[in-house]
Amino acid sequence: MLVDDSATVLLSISGILAKAGFQVVTANSAEDGQKKLAAGTKPDLLITDLNMPGMNGIEFIKVVRQRSDLRFMPILFLTTESQQSKRVEAKAAGASGWIVKPATAETLLSTIKLVLR
Amino acid sequence: MDELKQVFLQESNEQLDALETLLLELENRPDDETTLNGIFRAAHTIKGAAGMVECAAVESFAHVVENVLDRLRNHEIAVTTELAALMLGCTDHLRVLVANEAGVAQVTIEWIEAQGARLLAELGQYGPGGQVFATPKAAEAGVERIPSNRSGHNCWHISVRFGPDVLRQGMDPENFLRFLETLGHIQHMETLTDIMPPVAEMDPELCYLGFEISLESSVDKQAIEDIFAFVRDECRLAILPPNSKVADYLELIESLPEDTLRLGEILVRVGALTADELAEGLRTQAIPAAAEQPDVLQIGEILVAQQVVQPELVAAAVAKQTQVSEKKAQDAKLIRVPADKLDHLINLVGELVIAGAATSLLAHTRRDGELIESSSLLSRLVEEIRDASLQLRTVQIGETFNRFHRLVRDACKDLGKDVQLVINGGETELDKSIVEKIGDPLMHLVRNSLDHGIELPAVREAAGKNPRGTLTLNACHDAGNIVIEVIDDGAGLNRDRILAKAIERGLVDAEAHLSDREIFDLIFAPGLSTAEQVTNLSGRGVGMDVVRRNLQALRGTINVDSHSGQGTRLTLRLPLTLAIIDGFLVVSGNRSYVIPLDAVVECIERPESEHNRNYFNLRGQVLPAVCLRESFSLPGERPARESVVVVQYAGQRAGIVVDRLAGELQAVIKPLGAIFRHLQGIGGSTILGSGEVALILDISALIKISGQAEQRLIARPELRNA
């Protein structure tokens, strides 16, 4: 599952993932993502942006982590080099790792390979 | 242009709009965290999106802007007028860059580059130590390969102790090992379970494992470290390059928590050291080397500190964002639909209305009760579908209004005036196609008010007025129309100067006696500007007539009301939609006409005795009467009993005299061709169920025509008998 408020990011990352054979569910906000999870989507991996209007990515990660069935799901967050401090916060919230935006298809896929069981 | 690019362009423009609005808000409330965060996020999103579509120009510029905004957000620098102005300039520049990306920029590359360089230089002042440019990530100093002073071992040695929470963060330690395999070959690996508590106390969700790994690989240290980047802060990681000195290994052993001797044995086992090297090393280096220790502690301390701070941070963030999240929740329910799809739908609904009317007509002529019943049910549904689909195209006018904040602000700066913009009724909805077309006329009116209407602060003060002028934009619904008012509390229109100018230009006869309203209307005549100086904004005299023409093209009107010294009120009236209206069908001289139902107040009969008068009596009130038969020179005999439809428009009432009333209908408006544009009193045409064409009356024009005719008669009574 891919969560980001930017349509450009959603389209480009989901494009890369789909081409690599992943099945991608996208959500344009944390609330939207929550709704889709509640509706029964069981992703193997969650990629979320941190900086979103409404519920932010860190809150979202915390909420997801509270679900018993998603406690051990790998969660990656999208970040930029300027957001170092956020990494610690997001990790504390339960994130597995991060992807630095803008990511090439290669780094994106290798990062996913690192965390995906 | 591929889809991704298109999404990017649309998104960046939206974000830029938001950025601009928020920046303007920031000027009024410089400390508002929500606004600051919103601004940062907008810039951040633009940057991120630009990176995704590999639009380097936008990305790098947005990056610098974002850096400054980040400092602003962290209160490292203060919000100043100059900074806000600079940020607005940057917003504009980003717009140009995005437009350039879309290939629609109207400036040259050189200009863009010069502009960019200038802004970057200005932004530079706000960076830390005058430097905001992100220095490219300093290449990690390559680990020096120490010349081998011993033989044999050519492997990296990796020593890792995972943090207890690694599993809870969704990571599997096994993954790291598997990934290491992709870099090279793991020669030897030992798993350490020393800190594993007895089974009874063990938490299966925690990780107690550590590894000592010997990796044969040609990659550099950075590549190995990168693998562990996600757990770097929680785990203990030591990477020793191939051929490290024995002393380094010993240092490592000392710094790790496990028993020194046991570790030594493990290192020997993984092949990092030989038994002799270990024994000798331990002997010579009796004092424990703790070089690594302080660093490790520090990281731990920072982590602890951050964990202490966090709950409060989160609570504050939640409180601040409650409002925002409500809005976002609304946004999330929106879907994007291309406008032409909606237009197509509206067209189809229009056809459906016509076809429905035909069916219903057929049912009535056949006098088939059941058919009539079912077709009336159908028409009701069609009516609902029509309303619902028209609703799809409506948008709030607030967005258009909000654009003027920037305009007012910039104009004030240019003109040295102080004006506050007040917006009322921003939530008023109207058809998107109309909104798009009134933006420019409105902008012109606002500029005019700023430029000519509102005086300089000193002048205002001298006149006993608040030095700060007020420009008000109002919007509301009124009888099927939307009314937009542009009101300023400036000097008002100068009646004499307008008249003098109009006479000078030959627009009116010097002898003519004109009412105030007629004189004010002259400002809409082409080529009339009373501004003494042509400014950047207005005064070129090409504006107001264009404004009126644009509005008329939308079936709208504009009225001026002005009081010297008190200000000017411009009232725009526009139809809510351009596509379908509820109409009232009337017949005169065997021809059908449609009166917009919203304008109809009531219908009465007119006795023959009043036939030759152009006024009538409505319960004691005298109202002008417009006889369609006369106005349009229709053939045929007048019927004995005529009907009068009382209509209301912009507060004025009048009667329209017709032969016969034919009831309500839905009229799908078909615009009249260019040939008929000069026709007064006709607003469009529609097709009836029978296939017959009916003309839609333009009530405002009809009332005006009848008024003018009456005034001519008053001015020259000798015509009355002619």
Written description of the protein model:
The complex is a heterodimer of chains A (117) and B (722). Chain A has a single domain (2-115), classed as 3-Layer(aba) Sandwich (Rossmann fold), CATH 3.40.50.2300. Chain A has five helices and five strands; from the N terminus they run βαβαβαβαβα. Chain A has helices at 7-19, 30-38, 57-66, 84-93, 105-115, and strands at 2-3, 26-27, 46-49, 75-79, 97-100. Chain A has a five-stranded parallel beta sheet with strand order 2-1-3-4-5, with helices on both faces. In chain A, strand 4 (75-79), helix 4 (84-93) and strand 5 (97-100) form a beta-alpha-beta unit. By secondary structure, chain A is an alpha/beta fold. Helix content of chain B is 47%, strand content 19%. In chain B, helix 1 (3-28) packs antiparallel against helix 2 and helix 1 packs antiparallel against helix 4. The radius of gyration of chain B is 39 Å and the shape is elongated. Chain B folds into five domains: 3-130, HPT domain (Four Helix Bundle (Hemerythrin (Met), subunit A)); 156-291, 2-Layer Sandwich (Alpha-Beta Plaits); 339-393; 395-575, Heat Shock Protein 90 (2-Layer Sandwich), CATH 3.30.565; 580-719, SH3 type barrels, CATH 2.30.30.40. Chain B has 21 helices and 21 strands. Chain B has 722 residues and is α+β, with helices and mostly antiparallel strands. The chains are: A alpha/beta (117), B alpha+beta (722). At the A-B interface, helix 1, helix 3, helix 4 and helix 5 of A face helix 1, helix 2, helix 3, helix 6 and helix 11 of B.
